[in-house]
Amino acid sequence: MDGENLKVFIYPTNSLILADLVERFGHKPLMINNAIGEKVRNAEIDHPPMNITDEDPKKGLKYAAIEVPSGVRGRMSMIGPLIDEAEAAIIMNKAPMGFGCVGCERTNELTKYLVRRSEVPILNLEYPESDEDATVIVKKIALFLEDLGNK
């Protein structure tokens, strides 16, 4: 690929399928798996299973108000910085749990809202219902990622 490698936020944020496609086209997938991995491997965090620092709840407040459930704020403390870092995004709507689900619809709604508000190029897709649909979606993702690399 001749273009530059961009940071592409993926949704669902833990979809290995989307991450793999993004990597195959030479871009960096921004996914929650990496953020969680840093937390569990960080030597500064010495109180598993919580794996949080004093700063994490404050980070979550940047993306979700104090009235929002703590679980949403906790997830957003990891997802929000990924959205801030993103130079593009791929959103797969109506994906089943097995495709990669955060498991919290309020977090999912807030995540998609913040991505739309970020004004990065976004590819919105509907989860495929058939093999033919899946082929079309992979082609759309390929074209989107190739165009990103050429700009």
Name the structural class.
Answer: alpha/beta
Mean pLDDT: 86
Give the strand order of the largest sheet, numbering strands 1, 2, ... along the chain. Answer: 2-1-3-4
Task: Describe the global form.
Answer: globular
Distance from N terminus to C terminus (CA atoms, Å) equals 12 Å
- Give me the Rg, rounded: 16 Å
Instruction: Give the tally of β-strands.
Output: 4
- The CATH topology assignment is Rossmann fold
In total, how many domains does the architecture comprise? 1
From the coordinates shown, what is the CATH architecture?
3-Layer(aba) Sandwich
Which residues sit in consecutive blocks of at least 5 with pLDDT less than 50?
A: none
Q: List the total number of helices.
A: 7
Classify the helix fraction into a percent range. Answer: 40-55%
CATH top level label: Alpha Beta
Q: H/E order of the elements?
A: EHEHHHEHHEH
Characterize the biggest β-sheet.
Answer: 4 strands, parallel
Measured by DSSP, the beta-strand proportion falls in 5-15%
